[in-house]
Design brief:
alpha+beta, eight-stranded mixed β-sheet
């Protein structure tokens, strides 16, 4: 698999910011009542990479791409299948089909159909019989070339004081009723920052293509719009997506996200934040790093929400001013504004 050619030539570094208003950005199922994940020391909200990848997988599923790890609520299965069954579902291959394949053909068929594995990798712990059928050309694990760190909010978060008590009543066959009670835990507001990397070296093993990487730009934005419409997640909005594509020298900065923070003078105090109008981003350090890295940068792909406010010259300005500043810093030919929905609007 390592010798399989790939069209991904360049490494990319991703910064993705979104906010969550009056909701639970990432509940902890091991806590009481699925409380939002919050760092006890810093008071910052925490969102795992698994949560973001679930949004992305669900959007791929809605877009009718093949998914290996499907959301049980979306998958039309009566019972959750085994990993053997997941392979058969995504490839539409049975034992006889696999037996007729040679070498790594089964792995190639799997990766061609399992779009999420091309991005994020997967552990393929099949049954012994099925693994023997697949042969040595099918590895036990694919390392995903697209990886995200756990995200944190740019500020200390406040838990809603008006938590609601939820109750459910279910009638048994005998007509008896049983009820359960739970607390609806939410945060007032969280401006969340993810950092990720697309590794062109690891892309060889999962057949990640240039088209896959380009799709990730619009996928991330649309996933946050479309996959957060449930009761506990309603209130999410994507605000800023940046993918810095480097030149072909296996290089990336690694900490560009540190250069984006809340402007302490132009934003409201942490505990007073309630929506996007209360925030202003400070991007001075980001622009300095981008200017320093300009010789390594191929293209900066970005999408900014029109409600975003960014501090430039001590004044809160809109996203167009930020894009103009970025263009001035690295050159117009290196800035690509992403058309998320495939239109010119």
């Amino acid at each position: 698999m390592s010798d399989t050619p790939t069209t991904v030539a360049n490494r990319s570094e991703i910064i993705f910011l979104y906010d969550a208003e009056d909701c639970n950005p990432n509940g902890n199922p091991l806590s009481a009542n699925n409380k939002p994940r919050v760092d006890e020391t810093t008071g910052e909200a925490v969102v795992t990479d698994v949560r973001l990848k679930r949004y992305l997988r669900d959007q791929l599923d809605d877009d009718e791409f093949g998914i290996y790890i499907r959301n049980p609520s979306k998958a039309p299965y009566e019972n959750v299948p085994t990993r053997d069954g997941l392979f058969k579902n995504v490839t539409d291959l049975n034992e006889d089909d696999v037996e007729e394949m040679e070498g790594g053909d089964a792995a190639t068929a799997f990766l061609n159909n399992a779009t999420d594995v091309r991005y994020f990798g997967a552990t393929c712990s099949f049954s012994q019989d099925f693994q023997e059928l697949l042969g040595d050309g099918f590895p036990g694990q694919f390392i995903g070339p697209v990886q995200f760190e756990h995200a944190r909010s740019l500020h200390t978060v406040a838990t809603k004081t008006e938590s609601k008590q939820l109750s459910t009543v279910v009638a048994s066959e005998e007509g008896d009723q049983q009820g359960t009670f739970a607390t609806d835990n939410r945060l007032e507001y969280a401006f969340i920052r993810f950092h990720g990397v697309v590794n062109e070296v690891a892309a060889k093993d999962t057949h990640l293509s240039e088209d896959d990487v380009a799709r990730l730009d619009s996928l991330s934005w649309r996933a946050l719009k479309n996959q957060t419409l449930t009761r506990s997640k309603a209130g999410h909005q994507p605000r800023l997506y940046i993918r810095v594509e480097y030149k072909t020298d296996e290089y990336h900065n690694g900490r560009l996200d540190d250069g984006i923070s809340l402007d302490s003078e132009l934003s409201k105090a942490d505990t007073e934040l309630r929506n996007i109008t209360d925030t202003v981003l400070n991007v001075d350090a980001f622009l300095d790093e981008v200017e320093h890295e300009a010789e390594h940068i191929e293209t900066i792909h970005l999408k900014a929400d029109r409600h975003l406010q960014i501090a430039l010259d001590g004044t809160a300005k809109g996203p167009d001013a930020f894009i103009n500043e970025l263009t001035t810093t690295v050159g117009e030919d290196k800035v690509n504004e992403i058309d998320v929905y495939g239109t010119d609007e």
